[in-house]
User: Fold this.
Amino acid sequence: MLTLNTREELFQIKSLEFATEDVLKTPSERMRRRAQLLQAVALESIGQSEVILHLESLPNQKKIKSRIVATGDDRVVLDKGLMIPIHCIFKVEFP
Assistant:
């Protein structure tokens, strides 16, 4: 699992390659992911809660433990200003 605690991990996350297509195939799965991301932003604003994002990157899957500061239509903003595309997230886990 990657965190944003060290420069090496931050660089490793920045260098990930993501597919251009959404990893979730159905509209209901995408709506569930959107709701989970909005919940993570709300929890972060209350108590700086971290979540675990399960990502599909090329060529394998990664887990990132971080706070989600903001979410938009196509990207999420993690702690330290790191942005990743929403379409690569297949699961949001609340530890």
